[in-house]
Amino acid sequence: MDSVGRNRKEGLVSIVTPVYNGEAHLAGMLDSVLSQTYPGIEMILADDGSADATLQVAEGYRERFAARGYAYRIVQASHRNASAAINAGLPYVTGEYLIWPDSDDVLEPESVAKRVAFLAGHPQYQCVRSLSYYFNENTGERLDKADEQRGDLSKEDLFWDILESRTFVCCGCYMFRSEPFFRIYPQRHIPEYDVGQNFQMLLPFVYRYKCPTIREELYGVAVRAGSHSRTGLTQQQEEKKYADYERLVDDIAELCGLEDEESRRRVTGWKAARRYRISLKYRRWKEALKALGRLRSCGGFRMGDALKEVIWAFFVKGWVAEKVYPVYRKICCYLRSSQA
Asked: CB–CB of 332/300 below 8 Å?
C-alpha cells in the first residue's frame, strides 16, 4: 500500500501530540485521552528532545494505555521545534482520522466520539471542528477570556478566516480524514519552522475542503504563564518569528497554488499588516508607514483608517500606546471581520 493509505485502519483515530519539556503537564493530556468514550484510538507521542522527565512520565502510561485497549507509541527526536516533532510522528499514523492536540491541553470525554460520528454521518466532509474553552491550569477554573475569536460558525470555507485571524486555529479542535491529508503531504512531512505547526496542518487542508463546526466545547486549552505561546520574546526573537511566519505562509501559498491576483493581494496585505504592527511596536516609523502604504494599495485600509494609524504611530506614546492601542486594533479587526 502507498504512503497515502498504507495500513490505514477503518474507524481508528490517530492522535499525534508533540511535547517538549512537558513533565509538569503531560499527564493531564494523557489522562484525557484515556477518558475518551471512543473505543478505537492510537496515541503517538512525539518528544522534541525534552530535557526534563517528560519521557519518564510518558513511559509510566504504557500499561494504562494497554489496559484501555489503545495503541501507544513514544517517538523520540532531537530538539528542534513542534513541526519537526509532528513530522516524527506522522509516519506512524494508521488511523482513518487524525487529530493533533497540544500536550498541555485536554480532550473532553466525548471529544473524539462526537467528531468521528459527525464525519461518519457526513461522508461529503473531509474534516470537522469543535469549539474550545480556556481554563486555568493550576485551579482548573474556566476562563471567560479566549485568545482567539470564534468568528462566523456557519462558515465552512475557512482558509482566509484562519489566515486573517477571523476564526480560531486551536489545533485540538480539528479532525481530518487522514487519507486526503496524506494526499497533500504524501511524504508525511509538513514544512518545518520554528513557528507554527497548525498553519502547516490546517491551511492547505481547509483550502481544499470545507470544514463545518460542531457547536460544543469539546477541547480545553490550558492557560499557564510558562507556556510557549505566552513566553515573552526579545525584539530579535519577535522579529525572527514574524519573518518565519512570512516564509511559512509563502510555502503554504505555493502548496495551495495561490496564483490569482486576488489571493496574492490578500497574502501581501496579511504580511503588510503584520509588518506594520511589529514596526509600530519598536518605533520604526518609516517601516510602519511603508507597511501602511502597502496595506492601502492592497485594500487593507481605507484612507481614513490609514490616517488614524499615522496618528497612532507619530503622536501616541507611552501607556496609551501600550495599553489602549491594542484594544483599538482588536476593535478594528472585529469590525472588519463582521463586515467580511
From this structure: no
End-to-end CA distance of the chain: 44
Identify any residues that bridge with 14 across adjacent strands, giving them in sequence order. 42, 98
- Measured distance CA(273)–CA(253) in Å, rounded: 17
Pair 149, 166: CB distance under 8 Å: yes
pLDDT in tens, 14-28: 999 999 999 999 999
Q: In angstroms, rounded to a whole number, what is the distance separating the alpha carbons of residues 256 and 103?
A: 29
Band of pLDDT at residue 9, cut at 50, 70 and 90: very high
Confidence of residue 289 (pLDDT cuts 50, 70, 90): confident
Q: Which of 109, 98, 120, 122 is nearest to 217 (CA)?
A: 109
Single-letter amino acid, residue 63: E
199 sits in the region (left: phi over 0; alpha: psi -120 to 50; else beta) called alpha
**C-alpha span between 153 and 151 (Å, rounded):** 6
How does DSSP assign 95-157, residue by residue? Answer: EEEEE---TT-EE-TTHHHHHHHHHHH-TT-SEEEEEEEEEETTT--EES--SS----TT---
CA distance 139 to 146: 17
Chain length of the chain: 340
Q: What is the pLDDT of residues 61-107, one digit of tens each?
A: 999 999 999 999 999 999 999 999 999 999 999 999 999 999 999 99
Distances (CA, A) of 226 to 97, 106, 111, 223: 31, 17, 26, 9
**Phi–psi pair at 197, nearest 5 degrees:** -175, -25
pTM attached to this predicted model: 0.86
The answer to whether the beta carbons of residues 61 and 33 sit under 8 Å apart is no
Cα distance between residue 238 and residue 161, in whole Å = 23
Is residue 146 within 8 A of residue 134, CB to CB? The reply is yes
Contacts of 144 (CB under 8 A, 6+ apart): none
Which cell is 219 given?
A: 477541547
Amino acid at 305: D
